[in-house]
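BUG: 3D viewer hangs when loading the predicted structure for this chain

Environment: internal workstation, default settings.
Expected: structure renders.
Actual: progress bar stalls at 90%.

Input used:
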Amino acid sequence: MPRRVSADDGTPLEMAILIDLTTERQARAQIDRSLDEMAQWFDLSPVGMLVVDETGLVLRSNAAFEALVGRAPVMLWVLEFNWGARAFYKKLGGREIARHSFDLAGVPTPEAAYGWPADGTPAVRAP
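Structure tokens produced before the viewer hung:
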């Protein structure tokens, strides 16, 4: 967008700055192609692979991994007194598979875990 400026003698001028983004756009396109290629390699690899975050949460797995260990089980924690959420999880086929309590501002707060294991048996048990 042009910007209005003045010369030293007060003559009005318009200043515009043009930047050639061709190289940047080409680099971004190459990155996108590389990311797509990596995703395809991950998905189609005959080697079972799993991506986890720093806390151990499973972010992604490929078909070869699922063929080795079965479908990854799902477990959701819900506050014990949240009857609406608990009923919703049960309605979706989940069942309570673990319980524990944590400290919330000095108050013991119980939670229940609902799971959907691939083979129908609890995948995680309370310690």
